[in-house]
Sequence to fold (309 residues):
Amino acid sequence: MNYALEIENLSKAYPSGVKALEHLSCKVEAGSLFGFIGPDGAGKTTLFRILTTLLLPDEGKVNLLGLDLIHDYKKIRQSLGYMPGQFSLYQDLSVEENLNFFAGVFKTNLADNYHLIEDIYKQIEPFKHRRAGKLSGGMKQKLALSCALIHKPQMLFLDEPTTGVDAVSRKEFWQMLHKLRDGGLTIIVSTPYMDEAALCDQVALIQKGKILSINTPQEIIKSFPLQLFALKSTDNYPLLKVLQAEESVHSVWLFGESLHLSLKGNLSIESFEADINRRFPQLTFEVEEIEAGIEDCFMELMYSHGNRS
Fold:
């Protein structure tokens, strides 16, 4: 197996005492689209800053493109593209000026490397004289990606690239990532959006600096260990409070307009429903069995690791 990234026992704590990463290990295959999926505060940005040589780890080893992260950081920087979570281009420079600047940093130029970003850049090229700070969210995203690709990196890091972007731009962005992946580029992306996990070849579910699971999205879903039911009520909150207090309930979470419920042991949903209806006749609800999604798997993994907050 050819790995573009190998992380072993990586840890990082801040002076405040916060442990951002705890003994994190994983491997990323070359030419794949790998996602770190987790909520805000999970450690994704700290991890990306370490992997892009902007922050030193407290312990652990990282091999990136066959190079040691600490000793070979200068060579690594020449081979990476990085798009941070916050738009960080020069807002007073135009689209074209930003691209020329970042090309110059890597001792190349826009004319010679236009073919590398053509499919992306042509969508914003009509606005090449507009200041970056005046672009829409989706256009800023495309410009930032173009600047990250202008020097032909071997690996691309994208930290929450679709946060705050409209649904259409999100879809277009992931289509661009798939095309880049198909061209052989190794892409590592972080996102808090569980639905984007299905768009990755492989994902690591991360929470509080620890990896809960690493696998393909399909295998993570297959590993969900319980029957799962969706309960819908005209008022979900009172039903949620009742179910949270039931000894026979393994877990119950609010998902949009329904509650996702799993039961302990071999208790049938029919018996459980009848018992709740008998004891709480004021609660009316419908029940159906459903297939687990990535978010259900993430919540179950958090629950099984003792983090029920």
